[in-house]
Amino acid sequence: MAKIYRGIGKMKKNNFKIVELKPTKDNSTVKRTVFIKDFIIEEIIGFYKHEKEKKQKIIFNIVLDIVQNSLPDEKDIKSIVDYEKISNKLENLTKSKKYNFLESLAEDSFKEIFEDKRIKSIKIKIEKPEALKNAGSVGVEVFKTRKDYEGS
Questions:
Q1: Which residues contact 45 (CB under 8 A, 6 or more apart)?
Q2: Main-chain dihedrals φ then ψ at residue 111, nearest 5 degrees
Q3: Are 139 and 151 in contact (CB under 8 A)?
Q4: 138, 131 Cβ separation under 8 angstroms
Q5: What b-and-e string marks burial along 32-71, b requiring 16 or more CB atoms within 10 Å of the CB?
Q6: Comparing C-alpha atoms, which of 124, 129, 125 is closest to residue 149?
Q7: What are the beta bridge partners of residue 140?
Q8: What pLDDT band is residue 16 in, cutting at 50, 70 and 90?
Q9: Helix, strand, coil percent values for the chain (each to nearest 5)
Q10: How does pLDDT run across 80-101, given as a tens digit for each residue?
Q11: Sequential DSSP letters for 110-151
């Protein structure tokens, strides 16, 4: 979270102004979350030979924590985080690259989604419901903040 600083006092010393900076408190309790639930893509994905022979379902569940300091503008799609744009990016990822692992797909998904600087954190859950005969689903779930992603 970015800290906002404000000047507390000014003093003169040798013709320099000294300004003491202290962080201001963020009293906002507004939290905006955008989510995509049970988004299904069918593509080739997997490590094993039998997984490379036919397309299988890949289910995405994504939760985005958004920095939203202003109200949405009903006439401007850019005033919100567009979930359709994100779903299109996920489809393009799976079509343009063949993945062996859901973990790799998740990492590439973070790269695409974090392009929008308003996104503070992402939780991605990706599942393959047809991967194991005796299981309802297998998958991976990863949570990253922007700080985690940018390596700060």
A1: 51, 56, 58, 94, 98, 99, 100, 102, 105, 128
A2: -60, -45
A3: no
A4: yes
A5: eebebeebebebebbeeeebeeeebebbbbbebbbebeee
A6: 124
A7: 126
A8: low
A9: 25, 40, 35
A10: 899 999 999 999 999 999 999 9
A11: HHHHTTSTTEEEEEEEEEETTSSTT-S-EEEEEEEEHHHHHT
Encoded tokens for 82: 């567009």
E-strand ranges in 44-103 read 56-66
Kindly state the tokens that stand for 112.
Answer: 């695409």
Q: Which residue has the higher pLDDT, 13 or 92?
A: 92
Contacts of 21 by beta carbon, 8 Å cutoff, 6+ apart: 5, 6, 7, 8
Task: Judge whether residue 19 has pLDDT over 70.
Answer: no
Domains in the chain, please, with CATH?
32-150 (3.30.1130.10)
